[in-house]
Amino acid sequence: MSNEVHTGHPPTSLGLDMRKLGMWTFIGSESIFFATLIANYFIWRPSHEGGLGPQHLDINLTGAGAFVLLMSSLTMVLALAGLREGNQRKYTRNILLTAGLGTVFLCIQVYEFTHFWSKGYWLTESMFGGSFFILTGFHGAHVFWGVVWLVSLLVFRVGRGARRPLGFRVGVDDKLPADPAEATDGGSYVSVELCGLYWHFVDLVWVFIFTLIYLLPY
Amino acid sequence: MATTTGELHIEGLHLPKEPPGFKGWLLTVDHKRIAKLYLFTSMLFFALGGIAALIMRTQLAVPDAEVVDGQAYNELFTMHGTIMIFLGVMPLNAAFFNYLIPLQIGARDVAYPRLNALSYWLFLSGGLMLIGLGLFVAAPDAGWFNYPPLSEAKYSPHLGVVVWLISLGTLGVASLAAAVNFVVTILNMRAPGMSFARLPLFTWMSLITQFLLLFSMPPLTVAFILLLFDRVAGTSFFQPSEIGGDPVLWQHMFWFFGHPEVYILILPPMGMISDIIPTFARKPIFGYTAIVFSGITIGFLGFTVWVHHMFAVGLGPITNTVFAASTMLIAIPTGVKVLNWSATLWNASIRMTTPMLYAVSFVALFTVGGLSGMMHASVPVDHQHTDTYFIVAHFHYVLFGGSMMGILAAIYFWWPKMFGKVLDDSLGKVQWALTFLGFNLTFGPMHVIGNDGMPRRVYTWAGGNGWEWGNLLATAGSYLTALALALFVVIMIKSMMSKEEAPGDPWDGATLEWSIPSPTPFYNFAAIPTVSSERPFWDAKYPSHRATHEPGNEETAPPALYDKADEHIHMPPVSYWPLVFGVGFTLFGVGFVFMFVPAIILGTLMMLGSLYGWSLEPS
Question: What is the pTM of this model?
Answer without folding.
Answer: 0.93
